[in-house]
Amino acid sequence: MKTLIAYSTKTGNTKKVAEAINEVIDNSEIKNIDDVDNLDYDLVIVGAWIDKGTANKEAVELITKLKNKMVAFFFTLGAYPHSAHAKDCIKRIENLFIKNNNEVIGYYLCQGAVNPKLIEFMKKQFPVDHPHGPNPERIKRWTDASSHPNLEDLENAKLKFKSILEGING
Length: 170
Prior knowledge:
Layout: E1 3-7, H1 13-23, E2 28-32, E3 43-51, E4 54-55, H2 57-65, E5 70-77, H3 84-98, E6 103-111, H4 116-125, H5 136-145, H6 151-169
Parallel strand pairs: 1-2, 1-3, 3-5, 5-6
Antiparallel strand pairs: 3-4
């Protein structure tokens, strides 16, 4: 099966996950989303970083070009992977694919370090009681996220995509 792994990255987090996934998929090509020039693949896997509760702009642009394809996705986010925010992101991204009659065969997500420039911006821009303000809980989450994706996250991505592919090749 000819597979494209297309990723968008701002800090390198999503690229690391894409490279890990690429290690376990035969006959795959890995490309930065900006370098994708055709969509003639049996399976397209899209990697994104989360921006404003959904895939980043470049990933959304690629997703909207996919029609009637078998697809999967992965993303990194600064929030905890089991948070309500992460679950909302999954739904939003999945719905972007489904709108164009794509068959979503699976996904993976993991925490990723938040861009330090964004953290500094939020610390300066927002008061502690603002939804993005630097309260103690948020600062702890930023600190926790700073070590991700780690080796365990990358191994989990490999295992998840092995499982996804076994499900369709089964």
